[in-house]
Amino acid sequence: MNRWVRSIFLCLGSTLLLMNWSVAAEWETCSGIVPMQNRYDKISILDFGGVGDGRTLNTKAFEEAIFRIQHLKRRGGTLLYVPAGVYLTGPFNLTSRMTLYFACGAVIKATQDPSQWPLVNPLPSYGRGRERPGGSNVVIRYVTILAPADSPNTDGIDPDSSSHVCIEDSYISVGDDLVAVKSGWDQYGIAYGRPSHSITIRRITGSSPFAGIAVGSETSGGVVDVLAEHINLFNMGVGIHIKTNIGRGGMIRNITVSNVYMENTRTGIKIAGDVGDHPDEKFNPNALPVVKGIKMKDIWGVKVLQAGLIRGLKNSPFSGICLSNINLHGNNPGLRNSPWKCSDVSGAAIQVSPWPCAELTSSQQTGACSTYF
Ligand SMILES: *[C@@H]1O[C@H](CO)[C@@H](O)[C@H](O)[C@H]1NC(C)=O
Ligand SMILES: *[C@@H]1O[C@H](CO)[C@@H](O)[C@H](O)[C@H]1NC(C)=O
Fold it and tell me: Where would you find the membrane-spanning parts of this chain (predicted)?
């Protein structure tokens, strides 16, 4: 392993790396999906007027540093170093071929002044303002992301119409989903047609009144080939939530979630086709999502009020749903938690407790685990 990369590990600082796929060198990888890259060009936020005193607004400093990276286009990209300190800031956009490197003790803190948060134009895949543009070839690791549990719409990380994204070794405690993979909203997302694929989410710990690992509910461009593993969740609304809706269209396929521990959770596993609203009334009610090939295995939960809920669509039943080695215990040892509820779904279940719904346990379905994987 390159010595420079090793020093990141030892420091336990935080990095956000934006890669250009074509120039990325073939060495150390995060997840084996996105090649890591050394950055010979390094700049510090202090050189752009950054002040880490917790009071000075640093939006301009970040914007100017990133503007320089974007326009100077140094060979091999640029690392932007943020030394220890608390940097108050409004929103800023990242760019390609950059590493945002937080030294140990470096915090970027969102300003509470609403005038610093202008509305951004809606993404073409959303129709109305909602999220920020997604980015492909992105590595996020060793970050801590915090927002108050009662702050609305504060997802931790949303890969949106993005591919080759790796999110590892991070702690996220927010007021909405910790990580949600998305790809556009109803007719806008269908027209835009850009899926999220090849997403790895690994060694994430956190808590939220909403979902831990989520897909959706905006999945109109499709979400395929997602792997989430080694996830620890505490005080959650829903542990794992795959969600879509009529009018979304899009395919959700080949999603694997494994090695999850959850504690004090309202619903352990939820896969549902009736979640989330619509951008406007012009959505096509015949644009039905397809949900196929979802594998969940090696999941352990304690104090889980409801083990699982799978609600497919009558005209587009969910298929190839495979559950194996899942134990979701209720609030009280000895007392059972609410049983699984399922409709319009087929698949298989092996060693699942509490015993899941009949739709998943009928014997002719046991091939489901191998069919889609
Ligand atoms: C950041 O990107 C958004 C969306 O493309 C854009 O509306 C906004 O103006 C950008 N902000 C800056 C500071 O460049
Ligand atoms: C499913 O997704 C994983 C990534 O999570 C990928 O490695 C694998 O090749 C995909 N399987 C199929 C059959 O596409």
Answer: none
Distance in Å, CA 339 to ligand 2 centroid: 31
Sign of CA dihedral 45, 76, 162, 165: negative
The residue whose CA is least distant from atom 6 of ligand 1 is 120
Residue 332 has a pLDDT of 73
Minimum CA distance residue for ligand 1 atom 13: 92
**HSE, side-chain direction, 13 A CA sphere, residue 312:** 21
- Set 176, 186, 280, 344: catalytic member: 176
- Cβ(117) – ligand 1 distance below 6 Å: no
- Name all residues whose Cβ lies below 6 A of ligand 2: 225-227, 254, 256
Q: Which residues of 267-276 are buried (b: 16+ CB within 10 A; e: fewer)?
A: bbbbbbbebb
Per-residue model confidence (pLDDT) at position 2 = 33
From the CB of residue 176, how many other CB atoms can be counted at a distance below 10 Å? 20
Residue 26 CB coordination number (10 Å): 8
In this structure, how many other beta carbons lie within 10 angstroms of the beta carbon of residue 361?
Answer: 18
**Closest approach atom of ligand 2 to CA 224:** 2
Residue 299 pLDDT: 98
Whether 191 is in the pocket of ligand 1, judged by its Cβ within 6 Å, is no
Q: What are the DSSP calls for 262-279, one per residue?
A: EEEEEEEEEEESS-S--S
pTM of the full structure: 0.88
Cα gap 333→337, rounded to integer Å: 10
Give the number of the atom of ligand 2 that is nearest the alpha carbon of residue 226: 5
Residue 188 in 3-state DSSP?
helix
The ligand with the least distance to the CA atom of 32 is 2
Tell me: the pLDDT tens digits for 106-137? 999 999 999 999 888 788 888 765 555 568 88
Question: pLDDT class for 333, splitting at 50, 70, 90?
Answer: low
Mention every residue, 6+ apart, whose C-beta is less than 8 A from residue 151. Answer: 174, 175
Residue 228 binned pLDDT confidence (cut-offs 50, 70, 90): very high
C-alpha 28/C-alpha 31 separation (Å) is 9
Report residue 329 as tokens: 């215990």
